[in-house]
C-alpha cells in the first residue's frame, strides 16, 4: 500500500488497496477521519479478504467482502446497507502529508484527486528529469507548481530573444545566442567609436560590412595594388599613404595604362584580321553555295531514294531549295504519292534573298521528266506553262511568298505508282526526276 506514484495518474494507488495481482480492492482504512468505533463496526465495514473498507460490499460465506475480492464465477448480491454506510464515512485526502487539508465522504475521494493541487502531474510541455530516480522520464510536479514551472524553470518553455525577437525554447537559448545575427559582438580589431568607451559593439550580421567598409584598424591594400604598389596598412593610414606616394602612383598608373592600351590595340588588330578572314570565307561559301544550288541553264536533276517506303507511307518529299534565273527566284520540287495511286509532282516558289528585285507574280514554263533507266528515248515527259488563266485561278501559287513556301502547282496526271516501281523507272529503290524551268515575261 505505497503512496509512491507511477508515471500514470495513480489516483487508485492512493485511495484503494493494491494487491500483488495488480487489482484494486477495498478503501484504505488509514485515511478515515475517525477510526471505526467498535469490533462490530469493523466486522460490518471491513472486507474479510483485503482488510480494507468494503467496496461494493457483499455477503460471501457469511462474511462481508468487497465485490472484487470474491472468486471469479461466484454469484453475489450487493449489501445496500453496508455500501451506504461506507460511502458516508469521512476520509482525508491521501496527500494530507503534502499539505492538503481536504476531507469529505469516501465517495468523493477519487473526484477530489482530479482537482487536488497537491496531486503530482506530468509537465504539460514534456520536459525530462536530468537526474534522480526519474532520470530520462517526463518530469512530475504537484499541480499547484505547474504554472510557476512553465513560467520560470521548464527548459521547454518558449522565451523571446531580446535581440532578434524570435521565440526560442529556454534550453536552446544559449546556442541560439551563439548564432543570433542581432546579438551584439565586439569588433574583431577592437576599434573604438569616437566619443565612446570600450570596443565598438555591432550586430553579428554587420561585422563583415564593418570590416570591409568602415573599420579604421582593418588591414587593406593600396588602391594602386593592381598597378604595382604592394603596400598594406590600416584603413586610417590610407589618406596619408596616398598623399605621400602620389607621384609613384601616378607613374605606376600611366605605365599600366600604356601597357593596356598597347594590348587593346593588338587585340583590335587581331579582331579586324579575323573579321576580314571570316568575311572573305563567308563570301566564298556564299559564292560556292549559289553556284551549286542555282540552275544557270534552268535544269535540275533530283534523285529520290527509298521510293517503296515513301509509296507505302504516302509521304510528301521536298527537294533541296534552289535558285533559278538571272535574279535568282528560289523554289523547290514537291512530290507526293496520295493522288489515286499516282505520283504528283509540283513546283513551289519559296522565300528568297532576291524577292524584292523580282516582278510578281512569277511566270514560267516547266518540263518534268521521269528518267527511264533502260531506254533514254522512252522517258516520261510532261510540259506546261503558267498562263493568264493559271494566274487568275491559282494566283497564290505565283505571288511573292509570305511564308516559307507557296502552294505548289504541277501535274495530277503523272505516271502511276505501279509503273514507277517497274525496273525501267525505279533502280535500286530510287527514281530520278529531271526538271527544266524557263522564265516567261510578265503579262
From TrEMBL:
One of its GO terms (biological process) is regulation of canonical NF-kappaB signal transduction. Residues 112-168, 176-238 form the TRAF-type domain. It comes from Oopsacas minuta. Its main location: cytoplasm. This is TNF receptor-associated factor 4. InterPro entries: MATH/TRAF_dom, TRAF-like, Znf_RING/FYVE/PHD, Znf_TRAF. Gene3D superfamilies: Apoptosis, Tumor Necrosis Factor Receptor Associated Protein 2, Chain A, Zinc/RING finger domain, C3HC4 (zinc finger). PANTHER family: TNF RECEPTOR ASSOCIATED FACTOR, TNF RECEPTOR-ASSOCIATED FACTOR 4. The keyword Zinc applies.
Amino acid at each position: 500500500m505505497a503512496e509512491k506514484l507511477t508515471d500514470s495518474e495513480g489516483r487508485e494507488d492512493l485511495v484503494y488497496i493494491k494487491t500483488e495481482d495488480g487489482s484494486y480492492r477495498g478503501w484504505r482504512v488509514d485515511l478515515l477521519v475517525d477510526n471505526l468505533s467498535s469490533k462490530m463496526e469493523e466486522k460490518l465495514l471491513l472486507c474479510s479478504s483485503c482488510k480494507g473498507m468494503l467496496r461494493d460490499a457483499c455477503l460471501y460465506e457469511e462474511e462481508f467482502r468487497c465485490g472484487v475480492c470474491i472468486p471469479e464465477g461466484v454469484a453475489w448480491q450487493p449489501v445496500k446497507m453496508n455500501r451506504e454506510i461506507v460511502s458516508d464515512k469521512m476520509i482525508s485526502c491521501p496527500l494530507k502529508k503534502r499539505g492538503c487539508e481536504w476531507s469529505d465522504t469516501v465517495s468523493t475521494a477519487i473526484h477530489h484527486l482530479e482537482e487536488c493541487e497537491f496531486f503530482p502531474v506530468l509537465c504539460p510541455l514534456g520536459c525530462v528529469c536530468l537526474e534522480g530516480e526519474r532520470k530520462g522520464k517526463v518530469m512530475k510536479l504537484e499541480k499547484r507548481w505547474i504554472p510557476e514551472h512553465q513560467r520560470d524553470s521548464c527548459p521547454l518553455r518558449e522565451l523571446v530573444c531580446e535581440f532578434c525577437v524570435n521565440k526560442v525554447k529556454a534550453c536552446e537559448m544559449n546556442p541560439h545566442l551563439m548564432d543570433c545575427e542581432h546579438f551584439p559582438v565586439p569588433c574583431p580589431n577592437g576599434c573604438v567609436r569616437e566619443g565612446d568607451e570600450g570596443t565598438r559593439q555591432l550586430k553579428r550580421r554587420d561585422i563583415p560590412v564593418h570590416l570591409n567598409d568602415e573599420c579604421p584598424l582593418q588591414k587593406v591594400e593600396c588602391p594602386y595594388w593592381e598597378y604595382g604598389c604592394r603596400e598594406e596598412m590600416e584603413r586610417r593610414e590610407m589618406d596619408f599613404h596616398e598623399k605621400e606616394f602620389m607621384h609613384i602612383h601616378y607613374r605606376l598608373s600611366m605605365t599600366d595604362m600604356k601597357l593596356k592600351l598597347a594590348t587593346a590595340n593588338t587585340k583590335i588588330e587581331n579582331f579586324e584580321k579575323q573579321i576580314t578572314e571570316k568575311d572573305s570565307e563567308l563570301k566564298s561559301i556564299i559564292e560556292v553555295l549559289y553556284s551549286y544550288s542555282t540552275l544557270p541553264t534552268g535544269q535540275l536533276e533530283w534523285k529520290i531514294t527509298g521510293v517503296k517506303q515513301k509509296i507505302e507511307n504516302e509521304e510528301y518529299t521536298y527537294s533541296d531549295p534552289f535558285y533559278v534565273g538571272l535574279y535568282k527566284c528560289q523554289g523547290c520540287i514537291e512530290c507526293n504519292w496520295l493522288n489515286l495511286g499516282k505520283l504528283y509532282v509540283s513546283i513551289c516558289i519559296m522565300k528568297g534573298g532576291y524577292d524584292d528585285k523580282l516582278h510578281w507574280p512569277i511566270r514560267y514554263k516547266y518540263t518534268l521528266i521521269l528518267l527511264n533507266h533502260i531506254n533514254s528515248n522512252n522517258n516520261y515527259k510532261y510540259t506546261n506553262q503558267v498562263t493568264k488563266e493559271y494566274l487568275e485561278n491559282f494566283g497564290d501559287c505565283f505571288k511573292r511568298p509570305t511564308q516559307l513556301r507557296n502552294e505548289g502547282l504541277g501535274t495530277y496526271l503523272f505516271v502511276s505508282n505501279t509503273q514507277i516501281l517497274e525496273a525501267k523507272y525505279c533502280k535500286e529503290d530510287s527514281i530520278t526526276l529531271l526538271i527544266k524551268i524557263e522564265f516567261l515575261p510578265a503579262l
